[in-house]
Amino acid sequence: MIRLPASIRAACVLAVVSALAACANRAPTQFYTLLAPAEATPVPAESGYAIELLPVVVPEQVDVPQLVLRSGSGALQPVDTRRWAAPLGEELRTALSARLSARLGVRDVYRLASPASLPLYRVRVRVGRFDSVPADYALLDAGWSVERRDDRSVRTCDARYREDVGAGIDALVAGHQQALARLADDIAATLRRFDAGGCPDTRT
């Protein structure tokens, strides 16, 4: 993808925000989700453990119902007519849970009774940055920890995921879905390698 100069990218952000604001009084609100479409890949055989994915912590600046766009100058602008289907932290947790379950063949027992016979791994995720820049990139900066219930041992990791995106809100949301899928895959790798210790190689 050809990268635009910073001044043009900033103008694109302002143009998108201005256009959406101008339509706010007459355009219906659109809702978006971070839950990606169902994948065609088969779910692996059920693993011999369960996970408990706790609520995802998100930055206060983006912890609002609206999508928050970032300009090249660093200004943040919530867009009233473009909103998440659920609170952002809940959207992130739901999408991560679905991806982990599909990748590992595990059950997420958050708010459910956990079978005492199965090892349980408690997963915590904290998002440091969640940037949305139209016609430029979607960025997810996150850290996570995995704690084993039986001996309370913990593994911690962190990574940054950036996806180049085209113009429009749909492209931004798709970019965040892709970044979140990469995060889920790295958390899955942490779970697989837990006994060996350390974090999986991560990408930027």
Automatic annotation (TrEMBL):
<dbReference type="Pfam" id="PF03886">
    <property type="entry name" value="ABC_trans_aux"/>
</dbReference>
<dbReference type="InterPro" id="IPR005586">
    <property type="entry name" value="ABC_trans_aux"/>
</dbReference>
<feature type="domain" description="ABC-type transport auxiliary lipoprotein component">
    <location>
        <begin position="32"/>
        <end position="188"/>
    </location>
</feature>
<keyword id="KW-0732">Signal</keyword>
<protein>
    <recommendedName>
        <fullName>ABC-type transport auxiliary lipoprotein component domain-containing protein</fullName>
    </recommendedName>
</protein>
<feature type="signal peptide">
    <location>
        <begin position="1"/>
        <end position="21"/>
    </location>
</feature>
